[in-house]
Amino acid sequence: MAGVTGNRRVGLALGGGGSRGFAHIGVLKVLEEESITVDVIAGTSIGAVIGGAFASGLGPAELVEKVEEIVRSPLARLPVFQTLEETDKQQKELRLADKVGLFFKSQWLFAQALFKPGMMEGEDFQAVVNHFIPDIRIEDTKIPFRAVAADLISGNEVVMSKGSLRCAVMASCAVPGFMPPIKDGEMLLVDGGIINMVPCSVVRGEGAQVVIAVDVDRDIGADSDFKNAIDVYIRASEISNFHLSYFRLKDADVTLRPRVGNIKWFDISQSSGIISEGERCAREGMERVRKLIPEKKERKLLSVLRALFSKRA
Q: What was the pLDDT predicted at 2?
């Protein structure tokens, strides 16, 4: 991304959140239009997908095309996504007391959970990642990039800076129980969101002096009525993730929060609106970003000339 950031190194931390992460594309579009150079990117889960693709050279317009292709492709109609969508609709239509165990009572999902490490087939998972991510090494990205995962064996955060970009992104996206873990030597890697949902600390550790974070996690607000163990367990996980992310986000200079928290992580049907919301949020936060990034004289002169010519036209 060509642009001007003075002498301050800018880092972009893209958070996890499933389809809500398409909002990252809208943010990237605005940063590109504003000629703001990103010097290093770190991503968790969907943030690793979008961040890795962008770091490899795909622009926002190309990423929009990639998303539209996925929405139209057979991958969007895999049985696991259809079952999740149908289950969600049933939950909305039933009385709360009738929701007990509905998600796990789906025979197809239950069988997947019992006999496989992930409900989504590894080949389908790989196909989605390959659609966005080129077959290159992390060291060869145009913008320095880091993918964040978690090791099930040690319980530690793993920041991937070398090796296959596709493998790193797959590991960062491997939602426990939904996608199979990725074996890497002695490690068994899964979605980094269980440790570091928005990896501000990673870009800060890479020398970023200005850290822009994009948080697309679920809203903390929820219905107050929880009638079964599953409702309580899921809600407890949401609260835990929210407060963990809040702690992590303290390392950001600017945090952008697109209003996508009410969208299910598996719902890609609203991709266009999600991208637009990311763009809206970035424009709204651009004044805060500009205050942290000094402009060079050349940029100021260019702005004056543009204004002058527009008046004459």
A: 37
Q: Distance between CA atoms of 15 and 110, rounded to whole angstroms?
A: 29
Give the pLDDT of residue 295: 63
Of 19, 45, 172, 271, which residue is the catalytic one?
45
Catalytic: 191? yes
One-letter amino acid for residue 222 of the chain = A
Catalytic entry in 19, 39, 151, 191? 191
Residue 45: active-site member = yes
Place of tokens 């009572």: 105
Query: From the CB of residue 49, how many other CB atoms can be counted at a distance below 10 Å?
Result: 28
Measured distance CA(117)–CA(54) in Å, rounded: 30
Whether the predicted pLDDT of 206 surpasses 80: yes
| Ramachandran angles phi, psi of 185, nearest 5° | 65, -125
Q: How many CB atoms lie within 10 A of CB 188?
A: 19
Phi-psi region of 18 (alpha: psi -120 to 50; beta: other; left: phi over 0): left
Is 303 exposed, middle or buried (CB count within 10 Å of its CB: 0-12, 13-18, 19+)? exposed
**62-76 pLDDT per residue, tens:** 999 999 998 887 655
pTM of the model: 0.77
- pLDDT tens digits for 187-199? 999 999 889 999 9
What residues contact 31, with CB distance under 8 A and at least 6 apart?
1, 12, 38, 212, 282
